[in-house]
Design brief:
Number of strands: 0
Helix content: 55-70%
Radius of gyration: 18 Å
Distance between the termini: 48 Å
Length: about 150
């Protein structure tokens, strides 16, 4: 089952990357164009959002009808409903980085194939930020709080 899951994950990731490339999402200018309402607005990202929402809604509706997924024991549906400071701060940081650079993690990984130095730098910084976040979370869990 593990090999089947790995092949399925690779196939879905490749399809996702192909879709990003076809949709022009590997080009930071397209992202910045979508955010430029007062200038040269480029609506392509909106169509990608709409397509992603449709696929996600269909998948969620299907998950409600099935007892379990084909390649896992349970569905991985987020249970947390509370909006808290870490969620807002993380969302703001993600949005700021995305708006400034024009890349988010998925397209950035796909754009590595282009071999462009700014993309490579972005991915390295992204990985460094992820590692720093994991380190800080692990440290805060391990260290007792002062009372």
């Amino acid at each position: 089952m593990t090999r089947i899951r790995a092949v399925a994950a690779f196939a879905v990731g490749a399809l996702f990357g192909f879709g990003l490339a076809v949709g022009g999402m590997l080009d930071p200018a397209v992202i910045r164009g979508f955010l430029d309402f007062a200038g040269a607005f480029d609506p392509r990202l909106g169509f990608v959002f709409a397509g992603a929402l449709a696929v996600s809604a269909a998948g969620y509706a299907l998950s409600r009808r099935l007892r379990k997924p084909a390649l896992a024991e349970t569905f991985a549906i987020p249970r947390k409903e509370r909006i808290d400071v870490p969620l807002i701060a993380g969302s703001a940081l993600f949005g700021l980085g995305w708006g400034m650079v024009g890349l988010c993690p998925g397209p950035a990984i796909g754009a590595l194939a282009l071999g462009l130095p700014p993309v490579i730098l972005f991915v390295c910084c992204m990985l460094l930020g992820m590692a720093a976040h994991d380190f800080s979370r692990r440290r805060s869990v391990l260290e007792p709080r002062a009372t």
